[in-house]
Amino acid sequence: MQLHPVDILIIIFYLVLVIAIGFLIRKKAGENLESYFLSGRAMPWYFLGLSNASSMFDVTGTMWFVAILFVYGLKGAWLPWLWPTFNQVFLMIYLAVWIRRSGVVTGAQWMETRFGNSRGGELSRLSIVVFALVSVIGFLSYAYQGIGKFAAVLLPWGYSPETYGVILMIITTIYVILGGMYSVVFTDIIQFVMLTIASLIIGVVAMVKVAPEQLAAAVPKGWHQLFFGWHLNLNWQDILPPVNQKIASDGFELFGIVWMMILFKGLLVSMAGTAPNYDMQRVLATRKPREASFMSGIVSVALIPRWFMIGGITVLGLVYFMPQLKAMGPNIDLEMLMPYVIQNFLPVGAVGIIISGLLASYMSTFDSTVNAGAAYVVNDIYVKYFNPAASQRKIIRMSYLASFGIVLLGIFFGLMSTSIHTVMQFIVSGLYGSYTAPNILKWHWWRFNAYGYFWGMVSGLAVALALPVFFPSLNMLIGFFIIFLISMAISIVVSLFTEPDDVEVLKSFYKSVRPWGFWKTIHQQVVAEDPQFKHNSSWQHDLLNVAVGIVWQFSLVLLPIYLIIKQFDALAVTLLISLVTSYFLKKNWLNRLED
């Protein structure tokens, strides 16, 4: 793509700026381990929340969401629950508080608060380290796939997607290594501002360029409908026949059943708590538990501009990119919608801002993932097992080396993966399938022990890695439930056939974290020692708030989409739902939140 010199200067200025930030805050970040990986727990919660939202606003995921909204219409708004997006609601309502009360540096170190330092505790910690590193490399491969393809189309220097992916990874790695989480948060906030500007520009262009009649002529009957029956009932045969093949290959024709599976999967994954990635690092970096909830809550609000961008690109693509898609024949590439819109609909200056913003979205995801991965390597492997007495200077140097090594592995596996969709499927179904069962049990059942956790995680991860090899065509949702059931069964059986964890560790965990669930045995022992102790009886209240919170978050997704497609009646109803649920959450969650 040919860019105007003004756009090129904007892109270059942005790339130089983020590197400069790394150099400017290098000294502050290098004070100690907590400063490097958690910004000294001194950042305001809203900075961390905006940083977290910016990390989730990745270019690869945005390209995928555009494709599903294009294919499935308003029903596609349900499909992000595959991740699941509403895990932020569970964190906001209660889980972020539980996680933050531990006061540790990483998710693996958090295992000590639950399982102690016994041999089983060490194994459980190692299993979460392995999971964290596998997931970090998976996310980096996913990001590498998306940014290379995006940059090769939009940047003017003619390099291959692989070359662009490596160049952008190197630039991002420089400021991550130098500045740690300080650098990540400060650059993420700059990136968030740029992404918001880019989203508004694309959304406004779509609203100006596309009339409702044009959109209606470009989509099949039922595309505008949010709700559904057992069948999807979208037929693209007279408009773009290959889309029907995509729906068949996705396995989403029986949409009612798929939605129930997505919802059930999402609830299970969300109850397990955040995976040991950048999301957990933001929770641990907050100043106190109450602020951890605030931080998780602001993420859903901050992501509203992303849906404005997704809706704008989708609408412009449906109306104006259709001839190019038809010319592709059966192998349509919906991931080209975003580059096409940027190339054809935006004025000079705006193109540079938007390309910089989308590069920023990639960098934001990438930098947070690298920082989280390096934290596990340094804190949970190097310091824990190889050099407990390491000086702060040596620890920071090891952090640099760990970050660089993780990036190299991400590039390597990114080169081996075949597509964005392939990597996404592995992350969503495989990795989270192995993580879910043991991490639900660790919160809610006192008798679940460290050996059960270790073997549940290991068996789940082994099955997750084996399924794509032996059953390559297996639906990812079915794969998730297979992995989940095997992992759950092994977790329970191993726990029942081994000794319970140290009762003092369990009492300490129960008193500090205060989870609800099946803790009666431990509660009785705690009350015998401290008659003033009150157990957490808020499970019904928390789950009601979660249900309302999911509706609230979903309304925030729909608002910008309805605005883009100019369905003003639906927009008004959705806005009313958003206001009512916001008021409910203020009265029943925010006003009652404790540390």
Per the CATH scheme, the topology name of the largest domain is Sodium/glucose cotransporter
Number of helices: 26
Structural category is: mainly alpha
| Proper CATH architecture of the largest domain | Up-down Bundle
Tell me, rounded to a whole number, the average pLDDT: 84
How do the helices and strands line up, and which of them pair or pack?
Elements: H1 5-24, H2 26-29, H3 33-38, H4 45-56, H5 59-72, H6 87-100, H7 107-115, H8 119-154, H9 161-209, H10 212-218, H11 242-250, H12 255-271, H13 278-285, H14 289-302, H15 304-320, H16 322-327, H17 337-345, H18 350-386, H19 392-416, H20 420-444, H21 450-470, H22 476-496, H23 503-513, H24 520-529, H25 539-565, H26 568-588
Helix pairs in contact: 1-9, 1-18, 4-9, 4-13, 4-14, 4-18, 5-8, 5-15, 6-12, 6-13, 6-14, 6-25, 7-8, 8-9, 8-18, 8-19, 8-20, 8-21, 9-15, 9-18, 9-19, 12-20, 13-14, 15-17, 15-25, 18-19, 20-21, 20-22, 21-22, 23-24, 25-26
Task: Explain this structure.
This protein is globular. It is an all-alpha fold. The protein folds into two domains: 5-417, Sodium/glucose cotransporter; 418-500, no CATH class. The mean pLDDT is 84. It contains 26 helices and no strands. Helix 1 (5-24) packs parallel to helix 18 (350-386), helix 4 (45-56) runs antiparallel to helix 13 and helix 12 packs across helix 20 (420-444). Helix content is 75%, strand content 0%.
